Amino acid sequence: MTETARTTLSDLASEVRSKNAGPFWVTMEVFLRDSAGYGIAADESFLDERVIAELYAVDESQVQIFRIPSLNVVKISFPRRVGQASLHDRDIHSGQHHVPLAMLPVPAG
Prior knowledge:
The protein has helices at about 10, 35-40, 50-55, 100, and strands spanning about 15-20, 25-30, 65-70, 75-80. The protein is an alpha+beta fold. The chain has one domain (about 10-100). Strands 1-2-4-3 form a 4-stranded antiparallel beta sheet. Strand 1 and strand 2 form a beta hairpin. The chain is globular. It starts with 8 loop residues before the first helix and ends in a 7-residue tail after the last helix.
């Protein structure tokens, strides 16, 4: 029996990206294709501070989520676990941080 492919956040988006927001913060942006996708991504029962905290092993109280309906964009910021360019920094530009968010399964229905 074959497994049915689940829809992910990246399937609803035209782009999901991450970048530095200074040496101690990461910002991720999800650009949704349309208002229907935005409605799913912006729904707090799907994507909230707790979900981001679990995905990125950060303190939930430090996660900031900005929902911008006029642009169909959800922006997320949180502190980096290690400072940029420190000995243990494995992604100096935070360019790969978006992958767990992009692969987040969208609830069926």
